[in-house]
C-alpha cells in the first residue's frame, strides 16, 4: 500500500477489466458500514466481472479499495446493479477522517432510478443532490463517471452531464472504492436470494501531470 500520500509519485492510468482480482491494485475491505458488514467473502471475479454479493437473508455487502491514493482525474465504472431495495451501490474517492475528503456517486439498488452525488470537504458535507436516471440501473449495464480537477467536479452518466460544482471540493489525495451495502437511512430489508452488483470495468485517467 502507498503510505506517503504527499509524495510526488503519480499512480499510473489504468483500466481494469477484471479478468482476475489484481491484489497489486485492489484490496478487499473488511469492516462495518451502515447496517452491513463488508465481508471479503462477498467479493469474487468470474466471467469477466467483479461481483459484489449481498447474500440472501442478510444485510451484508462488499467493498474494494485501491492500494494507491488518487487526486485529480477522471474516474469511470461500468456496472449493472442488483435489485435489492434498501441497499445502494457506491463509486467514490475517500480518505480518513470522515467528512474531510470524499466524492461519491451513490445509486439506489431498486427501480426508483435515484442517484445521489455527494461531496465532503473541510469537516462537513459541502454538496449533495439527488437526481433521477432515465433508466432502471438494475436492468442493464451503464457507465458512471466523475471528473475532478483543481477548478471543477463534474458527474456524468453514460457521458451525459448530471451535476457540477466549482467550490468546497476536497484538497487531499484519496483512495478509490466501489461498494454495495445497506445504509441506516433505508429500511434494512434483506434480499430473499443472493443479489450481485456486476462491475464490467473500472478506469482511471490521471490529471495530475
The total domain count is 1
What can be said about the biggest beta sheet? 8 strands, antiparallel
- What string, H for helix and E for strand, traces the elements in order? EEEEEEEEEEEEEEEEE
Radius of gyration: 16 Å
SS strand fraction: over 45%
Q: What structural class should be given to the helix and strand makeup?
A: mainly beta
Question: From the 3D coordinates, which CATH architecture would you assign?
Answer: Sandwich
CATH class: Mainly Beta
What oligomeric assembly is this protein in?
A: single chain
Query: What's the total count of β strands?
Result: 17
Give average pLDDT, whole number.
Answer: 95
Number of helices: 0
Low-confidence region ranges: 1-6
Share of helix, binned: under 10%
Q: Which fold name fills CATH's third level, the topology?
A: Jelly Rolls
Q: How would the global form be characterised?
A: globular
How far apart are the termini?
22 Å
Please describe what this structure looks like.
The protein is mainly β and 209 residues long. Helices cover 0% and strands 50% of the residues. Strands 1, 5, 6, 8, 13, 14, 15 and 17 form an eight-stranded antiparallel beta sheet that branches. Strands 2-7-16-9-10-11-12 form a seven-stranded antiparallel beta sheet, with no helix packed on it. The chain has a two-stranded antiparallel ribbon with strand order 3-4. β3 and β4 form a beta hairpin.
Amino acid at each position: 500500500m502507498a503510505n506517503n500520500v504527499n509524495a510526488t509519485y503519480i499512480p499510473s492510468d489504468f483500466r481494469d477489466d477484471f479478468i482476475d482480482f489484481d491484489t497489486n491494485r485492489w484490496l478487499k475491505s473488511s469492516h462495518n458500514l451502515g447496517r452491513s458488514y463488508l465481508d471479503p467473502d462477498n467479493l469474487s471475479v468470474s466471467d469477466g466481472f467483479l461481483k459484489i454479493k449481498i447474500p440472501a437473508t442478510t444485510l451484508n455487502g462488499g467493498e474494494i479499495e485501491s492500494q494507491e491514493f488518487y487526486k485529480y482525474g477522471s474516474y469511470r465504472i461500468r456496472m449493472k446493479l442488483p435489485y435489492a431495495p434498501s441497499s445502494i451501490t457506491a463509486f467514490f474517492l475517500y480518505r480518513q477522517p470522515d467528512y474531510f475528503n470524499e466524492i461519491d456517486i451513490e445509486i439506489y439498488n431498486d427501480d426508483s432510478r435515484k442517484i445521489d452525488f455527494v461531496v465532503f470537504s473541510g469537516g462537513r458535507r459541502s454538496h449533495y443532490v439527488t437526481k433521477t436516471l432515465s433508466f432502471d440501473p438494475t436492468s442493464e449495464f451503464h457507465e458512471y463517471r466523475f471528473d475532478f480537477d483543481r477548478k471543477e467536479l463534474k458527474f456524468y452518466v453514460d457521458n451525459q452531464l448530471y451535476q457540477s460544482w466549482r467550490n468546497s471540493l476536497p484538497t487531499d489525495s484519496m483512495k478509490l472504492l466501489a461498494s454495495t451495502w445497506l445504509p441506516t437511512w433505508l429500511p434494512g430489508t434483506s434480499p430473499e436470494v443472493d443479489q450481485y452488483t456486476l462491475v464490467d470495468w473500472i478506469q482511471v485517467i490521471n490529471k495530475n501531470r
